[in-house]
Amino acid sequence: MKFANITMFVTLACAIITTITFASPEKGLEIAIEADSRDKGFGDSTAQITMILMDKYGQSTERAIRNRTFEGDNEGDKSLVIFDSPGDVRGTAFLSHTKKSDSDDQWLYLPALKRVKRIASSNKAGPFMGSEFSYEDIASQEVEKYTYNFLRDEELNGLDCFVVEYDPVDPKSGYKRQIVWMDKSEYRVHKIDFYDRKDALLKTLTYEDYKQYLDKFWRSNRLVMINHQTGKKTELLFADWKFRTGMTQRDFEKSALKRTR
Amino acid sequence: MSQKNSSYGEWILKFRFLVLSLITFVTLIAAAGAQFLYFDNDYRVFFGKENPQLKAFEKIQQTYTKIDNVNFAVDPISGKANAPEVLAAVEELTDIAWQLPFSIRVDSLSNYQHTEVEGDHLIVRNLYTGAMSMSANEQALVDNISTTEPALAGKIHDKQHRATSVNATIQMPGKSADEVAIVAAAARKMATKIEAKHDVKIRLGGVIFLNNAFLESSMLDMATLVPAMYLVILIVAYLLLRSVMATFLVLFVVVPSIIVAMGAGGWIGIGLTPPSASAPTIITTLAVADSIHLLVSMFNRMRAGHSQRDSLLYSIRVNGKPIFLTSLTTALGFLSMNFSDSPPFHDLGNITAIGVMAAWIYSIVLLPILISFLPLKSKATLAKLDDKMGKLGVYIASRYKSVLTFSVIISVSVLSLIPLNEINDDFVKYFDKSVQYRQDTDWISRNLTGVNQVQFSLPSGESNGVSDPAFIEKVSNFTAWAQNERVVTHVQSISDTFKRLNRDLNAGDPSFYKVPDTRELAAQYLLLYELSLPFGLDLNNQLDISKSSTQVIVTINDMTTNELRAWIARAESYLADKLDFNLTAVGPTVMFAYISERNIQSMLLGTLVAVFLISGVILIALRDVRLGIISLIPNLLPAALAFGLWGLLVGQVNMAVAVVAGMALGVVVDDSVHFLSKYQIARRELKLSAHDAVISAFNGVGTALVVTTLILTAGFGILAQSTFGVNSNMAMLTGIALVIALIADMTLLPALLIVLDKDKKENAPLIGAKEALQNA
Description:
Radius of gyration of chain A: 20 Å
Number of helices of chain A: 3
Largest interface: A-B, 48 and 49 residues
Number of domains of chain A: 1
CATH superfamily of chain A: Lipoprotein localisation LolA/LolB/LppX
CATH topology of chain A: outer membrane lipoprotein receptor (LolB), chain A
Strand order of the largest sheet of chain A: 6-5-4-3-2-1-13-12-11-10-9-8-7
Radius of gyration of chain B: 33 Å
CATH architecture of chain A: Clam
Oligomer: heterodimer
Helix content of chain B: 55-70%
Largest sheet of chain B: 4 strands, antiparallel
Structural class of chain A: mainly beta
Order of helices and strands of chain A: HHEEEEEEHEEEEEEE
Shape of chain A: globular
């Protein structure tokens, strides 16, 4: 009994010391910067996305969208999402200009109205197309949007990973914190636990089926988001990745939205 | 028979140490089960797994976000609910309500997502922030939106600014039994914090507090009724026994009976609900009667000059059979509750049945052994009462014809009052006005919004069909129909959202407050809107994931179950006839609206089985078919007459009505068993005529019947004080039935016996004459 107590104390003490030693904001930031820099230079990319929404009881529904991304230099990335199905929103296009520190700029082109509407982007934590993803989950991840804290090293699915806490800077974020598992060799994110504002585990996102493009850029082809509180789930299946397709800055201007096909 | 009983008494005294250790051991084992007891505090426990309304409700809950909620109603105390100080309180409360455990959504005036358009810019934002420093324009916007916006007015905010609210939606993991208590405690803490800081009072309502009220009501009943019950037993027992020691001994029957019954409940895995939590009170009542019978007989014998030991053996001999019989019939009556559609009644019935049988064992095993260790003395007698009973017997026997006529007239007229009862299962009114939940909810229904929510899931028939203008138009028609209903305080409908978006995206032009022209337009508006909503304030509470159906939630004022059912039927037929939707309304209110009907249907069979079994027991015990059949009348009549009287005096009854008949039968049958046993002995052993045997029975058991009824009525009278209306209805009806049973057993039963139980000679003079001739 006594021995067990001592063992437990020593284990606990070690755990605490380890945490104190290694829970490091500097190292967290270094990892985030490294991950960001490893993805620099892809230029632009396009992909087809199938979004599968599932409720707790197995009912499901699908949506089809296309994604176009244009890499930013000093500013954040620009991205365009075009809706293909359901049919009644076909041709609707969602444009966002990620800002490093400020709120992102967002516009939506409504073909039925033949007008472009700017969206109040301070609300970015709501569900994207009724899915378990919010805009902030799928928006371009700029280093400046979080503060970081390296927590520990941990093995995940046989890969040596960093475990880093991401704390959103924006008070309008739906999250108090995110715990990110990133492999040490390629700096790819494999899993994120999202904690809501009351610090309860809300969602887990896993990145599966990574493929490397242009011998450099890793893209996951299957993202699975599980909501632990409602039991709902959303899968994003990516296909037909293309890089450096020759798109220009002008294709990502607000004025280009109406012409987008 | 008597030889066997006598040997039993001696046997048990001979091996008293062995028996004592054995019974202590068994008691401890059973008691250990109490550690597994827990409070089950979900109102859904009142509905069996097969309940069709529960199934329909669960299906809706799978499709849309649950409507389990905490409603923080803000009472402005002085001034109006749109005053800056009150709005500031709402703002702060909205903010901290997100911290409520298991909360997934918070809705209030401050975080209402107001839409406006500036040029090509769709602004979706909180209705207000920084309440204390709002401009006149901002205040005017709040005043206007809070009283005109369909999503808010009459639901979140009162149109006359008497109240406003913050509503937190809770998704409970359902992993542990104390989740409700955790949320309720956290919500109360938040309310206290806000009250300390702002000049407002917070009233707490919603499903979480309904569930919490079940929990607190059970605990309150256990904490107040059980001690009150003990006080009454001690007083009654002392008055009847006039011996401190003997009074103390009664506790040795009562306390272990309860412990064993609750312990067994724990072993079975029962969760305590207000009905099952009333089991200890009922067991106490029934257990005390057993021991009083035994002790009263013993003391009577002692006063006649016999030794304590002989008197004890005598008492065991004469009481053994009736105590067993009455315990068995009572247990059968309670077991009939297993037929109920509401599981909490199964638990009450099973726990009480176990407790009653345990009380029988403790009275017949433990009590005699304990008595054998103690010298007991009793001063008083009930001779006066005995004397009066004898006189009453003579009186009734001599006027049996008028007694019979009078009984028939009274019975028929009281029975005719039964239809005056209206069944009402307003679950808020289950709790009496001393319960905080009832006070707060009453305040909310007076000042803010109704507490009854009825949900309608309208299917479009195809994926993404909710954007079809024809479908939206139908939803809009139903919404308008419901809003025009006098009883409706609020309708939450997606058609209002579509109209608002159409108006706002057309530069706020009021003429565009209508359903969008094309499906594409509607779908794209919705997409735009969804992209603009903040965390938690999504449309999942109104749309299913494939956007094929939408949920319209209608909030209704206080009304009785009958009115509610009539309204639901009208709504359903409007949907079917005018809009071609064949669907049923669902929701907790709907479930409770049908609970009594379901319970009455299921308990009809249960009660019949109880009647059959209990009569069977009496038949076997009396070994006389004629007496058995005669006994049916005074046994069945009391519950029916109790309903009649109730109809005249109260008129409203809840789901307790279903279980009362079977339960009351099991309890009231005791009187007739005692009376008929004595009557039968007089007829068979003393060869008395029916007339004389009736008088003999009065002399023998009249006092005991009055005493037992007194104890039982006191017990149920205490349970009638329960803060939980189902328990108090059940107890009052049973109490009334008990008094009626006593009267019936002393008037109707003797009269019936004299009329119907004539000797064969009297009955068939011809046969008698033949026999006489043959003998001659």
